[in-house]
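In the lab's daily routine, each protein ends up as an entry in a very long ledger. A line of letters takes care of the sequence, but it says nothing directly about the fold. The three-dimensional part falls to structure tokens, numbers that each stand for a local backbone shape. The outcome of that step, for a single protein, is printed below.
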Amino acid sequence: MGLTVIDYYGKQISKCGYCKGIQCSISHGMHTYQMTPHDYQDLIDRGWRRSGHYCYKQDNKMTCCPCYTIKCDALEFKLTKSHKKILKRMTRFLRDGKKERSEIGGTPTINNEGEGDEGQSGEDGARGGIGDEIHRPNIPVKNINLEAAGKANKNRQKRLTGEEKVARTLYEKSEAKSNDPAKDTDRSQNTCDGVNLPCKKAKQMRLERSLAKQAAKCVSPEAGMTKTRKCPKNPEKSLRDFIDDVTNADRHKLRLNITHVKSKQFEDTLKQSYALYEKYQTLIHNDRPNNVHDYLEFLQRSPLKHCKTEDGPSIGFGSFHQQYWLDDQLIAVAVLDILPYCVSSVYFFYDPDYSFLSLGTYSSLREIELVQQLASSVSSLRYYYMGFYIHSCPKMRYKGKLCPSYLLCPEAFTWHLLTDEIRSKLNAQKYQRFNPEVLAKDIDEFVEADINNVLLLVDQNTCITYNDYIQVSIAFFLLYILSFDMEAFSLFK
């Protein structure tokens, strides 16, 4: 598997990218020349992250915004209503190429969970949530006398109470006489014997029609009478089902290509990916990159060795770019590390022209689906790492909506399900130890004896263990002292 070669920098103090504080972000840092995927897996399971060749770990007790490593169990992942809405939105766009009404004019839609167009924010490569501000349209609000309106409504209810009772009774009788339940729910007139019935909402009418159709299908005539049977429930659609909901007649085609960062395919598409990155950084973060070198340094160059094993995925372990091609146009790129137990999200950028598709959340779902796909052949690979969860930064809390998600205890290094109880504790105090029961002696942590076997790079071609290095250093120090004493002795003589 090779060696991991690092240059440890020690404790670093810098500006915080989350609370924007000056000289308040405290972390440990090191430069990694090369690293095996297994070693990096062990590092991120101890709270480390990488940005290019630089690896860092927040000192959560001292830093302004404690960062907790978060992962999602992809094999137990549950779609929310908001996730389904985003997946269906993509399906409709691919089918007919039209935007929804709320998206016409380039206005981003806000979903039910309060998320808007998710981009990438922060150093840990996690997608951002809603923007700093949501600007509401400047429409003057009418002055309404709520007290007078409330009294008028109560008087109206008193006058109509008797009529409504009669209407409901007649309506129920007519329902009982009908032999075709499907027709009953499709009535276009909400009247009965000249009495107006209360209007139903469109959603309620659709639900009634759906239930009536299901009931009609479950009626089987036997011996001159009808016998009802239970209708089997439709199985809930999986993430893969939503993604596969495409046809050859669709107006647009979306394809995802995954390519290693040192492959010919990456080089062939470098021009398009850099142009997309430049557009994203300029329009979303107002931070235009200086040149392509900055892009490569940040998102292409990786210390992880690309290695393939018999028990690993066919594409191997290492650093990859997952490219989103809409027809022949590159609209998004996800930077990923594929490790022995997980797929780790490094960064994500997209074309702002397609922000109405909520590509940040959509790509998270596609990356979870990638884990599920890899897990079918590699049983140990089942987690999706989303970088850091910063509870004190509201924009980063969206990560906890991918359920089930787990946070890493910063002291015991054990995983804990992100629940409302943990959220309440983090609301009360930013730094928390999630495992109060584990004693120090039980923690699977680096012990002092292990350092004797760590290899130190003396020059480009020579490595020695830390124990040998200490012995050699002591020998050189004694020789230096001895030579100094001999010189002093000769001068004195």
